[in-house]
Structures
1.
Amino acid sequence: IVVENAGRTKVHRHTANLGMAPGSAEHLVESTLEAARDELVRGLGGLLGRPVPVRGGFPDRAVVVGTPDSSPLVRRLVPARDLAPLGPDGYLVRSLSRGGHRSIVIAGNTDLAALYGTFAFLRRLQAQHPLAGLDLSSVPRINHRYLNYWETERLYAGNNATGTGGLDGENGAIFDFTATGASAALNLPVILDRYLVAARAMASVGINGITINNVNANSFYLTPAAIEQEAALADALRPYGIRLAVSINYAAPTDARFAPDTLTREELDPYSAKFRDWWTRRARMLQAAIPDFMGFTVKANSEGQPGPQDLGYDHGDGANGMAAAVAPLGMRIFWRTFVYNADVDADRLKRAYLEFGPIDDEPQPDGTIGRFAGNVFLQTKNGPLDYQAREPANPLFGRMEHTNQAIELQVTQEYTGQNTMLCYLGPLWEEVLKSDTYATGADGRLLAKRLVGHVVDGTAQGHPDSAIVGVANFGNAGNLTGHHFAQANLYAFGRLAWDWTLDARGIAEDWVRLTWSNRDFAVRTIVAMMMGSREALVSYQTPLGVAHQFRSSDHYGPNPAERLARDDWSPVYYNKADSAGLGYDRSPTGSGFTAQYFPVLAARYGDIETVPENLLMWFHHVPWDRKLRSGRIFWDELVYRYQTGVHYVSWMRRAWDALEPHVDARRFAEVKAKLAAHEADAGAWRDTCVRYWQEFNGRAVPTNGPLAI
Ligand code: GCW
């Protein structure tokens, strides 16, 4: 291992007393190249089963890591023209053989790129891909590859109270800002192993930023006491290229914790100097402690959170007010579009576009179009509802051509089995990123690049900046994510954030090789389990496009009969079950939501004859007797889908049992136990839903089909 000048670019320590907790297995590094070197020492040593020395000079069979700036050897081995197209984050990994002298060089234009290349190299090695003739290079398609971390809300991994590392513990947040009593001795700036394990995991797939607190934001994270801890965390994560942001509450300036620097409610006017100066002051404090602080994530006028609408302004006014406050500091505002104010339209799915679209279309005094500021990113969930296991793509993708837009994916499995069900989300994200928006340009012609992924990476509509956000699933469980297979979702998110054109199967295969086994039988079986797991979950929970049937208490089990104070939270609002059929009519003769899509999709979704069957009930109220493509009538098909979903889970359980010889005993048993619960809960979904539909159609469960209940 040759890493010249590894300690060259020290990451400045702002926190004097930063240190690892006693007895830690991880250690702090001071630079990104030191991180790369240590990954190689650990990774090569582990994979080869013997220590691999760090050396100077240019020994035979060296792995050389660096940049042309850090390493004269890299300068000699890699022509400058090969590095030029790699940008700041791209890397190359090459095996070279000169005069009988063999080496592998890992290089990029920045230290961080060299670290990314190091992980890519280790990945190849661990997955047993051949190294001979190796010549790979990779450049991310998206600039900002971020996680949002919601602390304890919707976090299904971790065990705070007992520290036993069990899989089903309390929802323990990974970064502890609030420890009190005896455990306060382990509070930040004391760095726990798991912070660095998380940092290494994130960097290994190219994630480069994290918003550390819930979007239902507690203003504590803006107080001096919290900023001191955030600075420590930022220092520890910085060598891995992970930058920090925080979520804020729009009304934070009124919070008494900031007294005497507080504003009145009336002073939250986004155009006022008072409001903007307040945010500039906070942002300055953060930047003083965290020089590379990224900015703020904002959930405003959504689910009870305050926002500019409380003062009669719109989302554009609010986002731009905050953006103006932080622009001089080079920061960004990530403003979420997850809004569904009931006054806007009876159909919840229509509301976000009705609020945001006109701002994007608005002509500006300088002749340009679109009011959102350049340092605003709108952060939009993949679908128009709320992270369901299958949704059509959100119509905002493609429709907001004058605004920076980030896609937000939910890695944590709120609606996809939480900590119990094995559900690999790669296929869900691949489906949305590769779905065609049929977006047209100013001339009315279809854009050449118009998949959702092209919209997100900026190539569809010529946006130079780009971002993707995953709502993270790690907690303080021993394995970070609780369910062993939930790690695959963090992994897949990172790989797709780097290159959304990758396919979910290839990513699953890599992950299985890195995580479980390189044996053919194991790889084939586990990849097969994973690849069908999401479609199975759709089938036994919400087949044929019937949306959101979750009970409100925990969003885990079913309650299709539930009717809540807010109708748009109620399963009955989505299923619209009656004696005629099932599903929400959003066609031109229904709510008209389909008109928010570009014409090709509007026509396709608007017509029950042409809508894809897997989205059927998102757009239509489907008669029980309607003939579907299988030849079965809708009711029979529906029951069949519930059945196939459950059968798949039973198959996964048996398939896992066959893997016992290939998997270590502890993890084998833990997954086995999860699958048993998974199977029972999938059956409960099927039975609860089918019985409830029967109350409306009075029909028996078809018994002549291949899979009678
Ligand atoms: O899906 C819903 C979740 C909320 C979440 C909200 C959001 C953090 O149930 O827990 O709030 O989405 O995305 O803001």
2.
Amino acid sequence: AVHKHYWVVKQTNFTKLCTTSTILTVNGSFPGPEIHARKGDTVFVTVQNDGPYGITIHWHGVRQPRNPWSDGPEYITQCPIKPGGNFTQEINLSKEEGTVWWHAHSDWSRATVHGAIKVFPANGTSYPFNEPDGDQTIVFSSWYKSNVMDVLNEALAAGSDPNVSDAYTINGEPGDSYNCSKETMYSLLVETGKTYLLRIVNAILNEEMFFAIANHNMTVVGSDGAYVKPFSTDYLFITPGQTMDVLVTANQSASYYYMVLTPFLDTESSYDNTTSTALIKYSGNYTTPSSIPTPTFPNISDSISAQLFVVRLKSLADAAHPINVPTNITRQYFMTVSVNLFACPNSTGCTVDGNNKLAASLNNDSFLLPSTSMLQEYYDSNYNVSGFADQLPDKPPTPFNYTTVVNMSAYTSEGRGVITLNYGDEVEILFQGTNIGATQNHPMHLHGYGFYLVGTGSGDFDNGTDRGRFNLVDPPEVNTIGVPRKGWSAIRFKADNPGVWFLHCHFERHITWGMSTVVIVKNGDTNETSMRPPPSYMPPCS
Ligand code: C2O
Ligand code: CU
């Protein structure tokens, strides 16, 4: 089936936390509109930009086979849609099933411009679990009272971590631990004995989160638009960019129960630990409870619980949902992910101490966004990468003790290093966390692909023992993975989607500082293994 949507990006006033703020929305709603489709459907979205600045929209987790032209990251696959302009994107849902999402991909506008994409099973097929009685999207977002672009610009000018958001929200609402927020707290109405599919989207800008429901376990059945082997848990760990599909059965006595959202923070972080709330309310006749049960969940810096959750994710990998993990690796990257410093030439733009500014890097290269579309440059140069980009080295310039010794130089270079792959390459990227400038988790996200998380662990990656423990049988197929602080994550994928695809940390502050690169997958020999040509109506770059 084909679906068509017309979206208007515009400024809209909302009153939250006792303050009226003007935010950018799609069609006036926060979170934005949902897209509903079945696997195999195509969705056309026309985005009319009636906002004050240029914007682009990205379909996070949708592979967009052969069609990077509709992927959306600004200056990677297109120039922004200018105020007054519009752009129609084609979203081809041939590979995903479950929940993915969409968000703005220009500066920090994704703070308020985002929404869920529900992908139901294809006609004639069904869920790999009993049909749920209810289906509800739960979106986590960051709420700033002030304009989020000002927050970004202040952070850039100050050269330090941006302000923490004023609240995390659950379906747009902070909940009753905040002033002026009790009446509007989100509540999910349930009926005793019924089972609900909750489609959880973490659209928060800068923090990984824990989520739990009092007295109710969750059965995780999907993540990032693919099914996983069901497992029961009393908390979720979810990074920005990730989605989790969970089943919850209303099997407790009819009452109210808190759902609670709280950040997982690095111990070094200055971020606060504000908790956001929502309710599960059973239908029926009972007196409103005077005290509502609250869940217990991991401590704010409990990296062990965070990792224990990640390693429970396994692909369903049954006959109807086969997987295909590359085992004949033709391209291998060992990639350090770091927050470091950049020595400013002639001391211009120096914000840390007069000589340096904050930067973030992959293999010690901090990515500079161009001001044109890299995809268009690639296409116009007849697929010649060397005209507009350099190659990112396949390992860090100097090996060092990544996670225990801090005495190595903090400095990074700046540039436009990309990864160029041949069609059909079997690729392994080993992300190695470092403690150069700060030790933080980094939720790494790749456009255009699902990838297999074949291993993750703590410390420096050990090519013997760690590699020997890789899961090549049923690793989860995901699009975003939190590389643990002082640890590593290994991913594999087959380069079978030609195009120009952004690879970046999904913390907005780190993408701003350059923790990104671009994966260019060359065309194969046939039309079916080559990029489609651009539509005639790409947003102009000048
Ligand atoms: Cu959620 Cu570049 O993406
Ligand atoms: Cu990061």
